[in-house]
Specification:
Elements (H helix, E strand, L loop, with lengths): L8 H8 L6 E5 L11 E3 L9 H9 L4 E7 L2 H4 L1 H10 L4 E5 L1 H7 L6 E3 L9 E5 L4
Parallel strand pairs: 1-5, 2-5, 3-4
Antiparallel strand pairs: 1-6, 3-6
């Protein structure tokens, strides 16, 4: 049995297959996922699992060099923005309109759906390298 923190088999497979500068996205329960983008649905009920819990779990195994967030998180969900920045204090942040973030989900290896029910709790993680 796997000893590390990501035990969801689909998610673990996606992370293991990522290379430098590949994208993985995590989002709230309402984020529309483009056709053709793999969706790993972890949502059980409202707020379970939370966006932050899933992000923490993924960060335990994925090296991240840059993140992409919606501009709207700054005003519509500043608490979530602060929590994200607290987990990734030295990682470059790029902001874009939410509509562009949604379009960019088509370029990710997978979208991880959480039970999060707060606005603009969506992120694209760009993988880094560990050497």
């Amino acid at each position: 049995m796997k000893k590390t923190t990501v035990i969801n088999s689909e998610l673990s497979t996606v992370i293991a297959g990522m290379g430098h500068m590949d994208w993985l996205s995590i989002g709230d329960a309402g984020m529309p996922v483009p056709m053709g983008t793999k969706k790993i649905d972890l949502a059980l009920t409202k707020q379970l699992p939370s966006f932050i819990d899933v992000l923490k779990n993924i960060l335990s195994e994925l090296e991240v060099q840059k993140i992409y967030l919606a501009d709207e998180i700054k005003t519509q969900n500043p608490e979530q923005l602060k929590a994200i920045q607290g987990l990734l204090p030295d990682v470059e942040v790029a902001f874009m309109p939410h509509s562009d973030l949604k379009k960019n989900l088509a370029n990710t290896h997978a979208f991880v759906r959480t039970g999060e029910m707060t606005p603009f709790s969506n992120i694209i993680l760009e993988s880094g390298v560990t050497f």
